[in-house]
Structure formats: structure tokens, C-alpha cells
Write a structure and sequence with these properties.
It is a single chain. This protein has about 290 residues and is of the alpha/beta class. Helices cover about 25% and strands about 25% of the residues. It contains six helices and 17 strands. Helix 1 (about 10-20) packs parallel to helix 2 (about 55-70).
Length: about 290
């Protein structure tokens, strides 16, 4: 079991890892997919770097953490659950890990598809959290929108609840599974009156649905927060000044907390989260 597991390898996550590791804690960082920082052509407003590409700054951070002894793994996190002793189990596509403290530094990765009608039915049949809202669709017809491992994980949370379950890929290749009925047709529109009623495909056919769970790309901090019962403000995680959340031993930092979306803010919050996690671990041992 690790002392701290950190989800995200950007400035916030790596800063948290550095401070926790320097306090002699065992630290695991898990990350997957392209960071927003990597997409930055040049950064010239961060102290001491001059002009540097986002990709170079991002990779430098990961290598710095590894040089200090932090384990940094490129693995997609699919599920996080709290255990009876208030530790956390983190399941990835490749393995399962345990951590005494958890730091969410994923950035805000909520992906809303560019499909007509999606925003109209959010909270009215459209959800972004199967484990949160699946109960409301017992024995009903639902679908998961997505094509990756995250979509399959969400489908797994629904398969023993829903009466009928589909996976809709919206034109993307079908995932490698024979457990679910998969429809790869491109979606034209989400339809309904007061609530979601059906999905209209571009070929003119439609599928009647009671619920649609969106699971595009990879899970972000807000997705995990919902599953753990962590308070949100919009799509951002609500944190205290020390970056702690309302869940014991869970901290959040960086873009997922909202506010100024800058490297300097992410580094500061990462440091706060790492130190707060160390203090939390110390209090558990006292």
C-alpha cells in the first residue's frame, strides 16, 4: 500500500508528489492521455524558465519526480473506491493499487459531446456518473456513450441495474467486448420532451432510451469525485485552504479546483495538497 496515490502528472500532481516524497512517504502517480500543458506551444510567464514548451515542462516534471524515487505509471484509472479503513483502492486498466491518501490532480476532463440536445437533457435523463445515478434506472433501457475502457467501466456499473443496456460509440470504432449490444452509428440528436426519450441517428433510425450515461475519453477528477461523494461546485472540486475535500484523506489541486488556470497556481496547490496529505498521514499514526 502506498502512503499517497496521486491521479495526474501535470504541475499540480507532480508538485504534490515531490513534497510528499521529500517527507519520506511512498508515492505513486498515475496518469493517462494528453495533458493540457503538453498542448501549450510556449510558456514564457512562469518563473525561472524563460520560454519553454508545455511538453518539455511537463516531461521535466515527470522525470524530476522519478529521479526522487516517485513511481510514475502511465495507466488509465477506471475506478476508485473507499475502503472500510478509509484507505482507497484505485483500479486501472492494468492493475489495482491501494493508497492511504488520495490526491486528485487530473485537470478538468469532463467531455461534453457536440450533439444537439445534450445540454437540454443533462439531469433529465443524461448523466455523467453511472454509479451515482444508475439506481434511478432500475430495469429501464439505458445506454453508455463512449468507446474506450472508461465507457466499459461505466457499463459494468450499470449491467446489473438496467433492464436493457447499449453502448453507443457515435461513429467511433466499437470497443473489444461481447458483453453489450454496441451501436456504432453516428448520432444526430438527443430527443425528448420533459425528459430524454430517444437518440436519433444520422441514418434516420432512432433508439428509445430512459437514460444516457456519457463516458467519453478518460475519467477526470469530477467523475471520480462524484463516485466518492466529494462536494463539487459546478464541474470543480470544492476544497478547503489546505486542498482537502469533504472525504477523509482525499485532496484536490490544479485545474480541477477551478480558478486561475495557470501553472503557478497548479504548482502552489500541489505543494499544499502534498503537505496536507503528509499531515493527514501523520495524524493517522499518532
Amino acid at each position: 500500500m502506498f502512503d499517497a496515490v496521486i491521479i495526474g502528472a501535470g504541475p499540480a500532481g507532480i508538485s504534490a508528489a515531490l513534497y510528499a516524497k521529500r517527507a519520506n512517504k511512498s508515492v505513486l502517480v498515475l496518469y493517462h492521455g494528453e495533458s493540457q500543458l503538453e498542448k501549450a506551444h510556449a510558456i514564457d510567464n512562469y518563473y525561472g524558465t524563460g520560454s519553454i514548451s508545455g511538453a518539455e515542462l511537463y516531461n521535466n516534471g515527470i522525470e524530476q519526480a522519478r529521479a526522487l524515487g516517485v513511481e510514475v505509471n502511465n495507466e488509465e484509472v477506471l475506478h476508485i473506491s473507499m475502503q472500510a479503513d478509509f484507505s482507497y483502492e484505485i483500479k486501472t486498466a492494468e492493475a489495482s493499487y491501494q493508497g492511504k491518501a488520495l490526491i486528485l490532480a487530473t485537470g478538468n476532463k469532463k467531455v461534453r459531446p457536440n450533439i444537439k440536445g445534450v445540454t437540454d437533457f443533462e439531469g433529465k435523463g443524461i448523466s455523467y456518473c453511472a454509479i451515482c445515478d444508475g439506481f434511478f434506472y432500475r430495469n429501464k433501457t439505458v445506454a453508455v456513450l463512449g468507446s474506450g475502457d472508461y465507457a466499459l467501466s461505466e457499463a459494468g456499473d450499470l449491467e446489473n441495474i438496467a433492464g436493457k443496456l447499449y453502448i453507443l460509440t457515435d461513429g467511433a470504432p466499437a470497443p473489444q467486448t461481447d458483453k453489450y449490444e454496441i451501436i456504432t452509428k453516428k448520432i444526430k440528436e438527443i430527443q425528448g420532451e420533459e425528459r430524454l426519450g430517444s437518440v436519433l441517428f444520422e441514418d434516420g433510425t432512432s433508439l428509445e432510451l430512459n437514460g444516457l450515461f456519457i463516458a467519453l475519453g478518460v475519467a477526470g477528477g469530477a467523475d471520480f469525485a462524484k463516485k466518492l461523494g466529494i462536494a463539487l461546485e459546478g464541474d470543480s472540486i470544492k476544497v478547503n485552504p489546505d486542498m482537502s475535500t469533504n472525504a477523509p484523506g482525499v485532496f484536490a489541486c490544479g485545474n480541477i479546483t477551478g480558478g486561475l488556470l495557470q501553472v503557478c497556481k497548479a504548482v502552489y496547490e500541489g505543494a499544499e495538497a502534498g503537505l496536507a496529505a503528509v499531515n493527514y498521514l501523520k495524524s493517522k499514526n499518532d
